[in-house]
UniProtKB/TrEMBL annotation:
Organism: Nostoc cf. commune SO-36
Compositional bias ranges of the Basic and acidic residues kind: 103-112
Protein known as: DUF4385 domain-containing protein
Region (Disordered) location: 93-112
Source superkingdom: Bacteria
Biased composition (Basic residues): 93-102
A Pfam short name: DUF4385
Amino acid sequence: MAFDYSLDFKIIDFRQHPELYRVGKGEQGVLLVEPYKSEILPYWRFKTPEIARESSEKIYEIFLDYLEKDDFVGADMARKFIQMGYTRSRRYANHKSGRKYKKNSEDSNSKKEILPYEVDPVKAESAAIFKAKWVEAKTNEKYQELLAKHKQMYELE
């Protein structure tokens, strides 16, 4: 089931209402779902490999803590932050500005032009660090069990 962007994220506490949470695809909702966003975001960094390692390890600890508490929504949000650490650092590894597409002037209907790759090995290393933790999180046995249970209970459509 798709992530539901129609919810009033400013007032919903997803710890109290996990039935409203939808996994969606990839990183959908990562910066919306509270209180998890506020609990995880302060630790999300990827500027250097050292920072990425510290960040990914801390967020993975948070992920495991949520699993220990059978808090699927929290675990999924931590997994999404780890995934976002990978995708953002990968984008900066490929494009120095962090932008993938060239800004088009007036014509919004024209095809977006992808900026040339400018590989940054430091950001690429940060991406690899986050990717390893992301794979570890998404393949975690307990996470997989809670994911299946959440989908069975709440994502029936």
